[in-house]
Fold this sequence. Notes:
By secondary structure, the chain is of the alpha/beta class.
Amino acid sequence: MNYLTDLLQGLDFEAIASFIDQILKTRDHGSKILFIGNGGSAATASHFANDISIGTREYERPFKAMSLSDNIAILTAISNDDGYEEVFKKQLQVHLDKGDIVVAISASGNSENLVRAIQYAKEKGNKTIGLLGFDGGKLKELCDQFILIPTAQGEYGPVEDIHMILDHMIGSYLFQYIQTKK
């Protein structure tokens, strides 16, 4: 328990504030927040999209968030036809618009499908953000900004725990933010 507390206390709160600022700017422009991730991080991507888009209870000027990890038919079609490495890039080719941000959630930061998606988003001029673990991997160097949970290689549990805590903290903040603006 102390280990998780130590990791939480070591978070870069300026990076978290910057992430929230990007979400608010994206909303102000009517753009989308596209979350991507594999495995447990795919579940976090889904949860994040839900908490930001629906959990904030804002429907007049909503947070347009979606997880590209959610549609099994799309995931398996792209994986079958083009390879799993292309599963998020191909979806971005359909869904990514100017002004959208792409948020990659990954403990290792090295998943090839996430790396390719972030490279594509950057080529198109979109802002990219990583929620990362371990040493940040390749995504730490590629993303415009990141929040890193520095743990030993292979410590997925604590990284995924804190990514979910970030989801709930940010979702709660945005909910309160919307309530004060009404």
